[in-house]
Amino acid sequence: MKGFEVIIVPSFQKEIESIKEKRQLELICKSIEKIERMGKNAIKLLHVRDKYVLGEIKFMRPPYRLYVIFNQENEKFYIVRWEHKEKQQKVINQLIGKLEYAFEGGIKNIMELFSH
Description:
It is globular and about 40 Å long. The protein has a single domain, classed as 2-Layer Sandwich (YaeB-like fold), CATH 3.30.2310. The protein has helices spanning 10-18, 22-38, 88-105, 110-113; strands spanning 5-8, 44-49, 52-58, 64-71, 76-84. It has 116 residues and is an alpha+beta fold. The N and C termini lie far apart (34 Å). A five-stranded mixed beta sheet has the order 1-5-4-3-2, sandwiched between helices. It comes from Candidatus Methanoperedens nitratireducens. This is Plasmid stabilization system protein.
């Protein structure tokens, strides 16, 4: 069975490099492995726009969320954010806003949204 392609966007790569807590890094790695294994069944659906799905993988202890954008057309998963549950709604709104803005202007590549 072929694993799913998971891409860490540049802005999230910078975020990962700044995380000092080993447990958080382990959870992120575990999530990526889960996506590679299970694909879209690994994420909870939050928002759909055209061929893109915004989803999350949540953890209770510690209460963090890993945010993922899934391109249904080419079945690529883009890891875009890791955030504490307290900021959940704010982050979801920001990510939905980025997707909507990109569609209004004509999205070429999801990586452009998260390059900085």
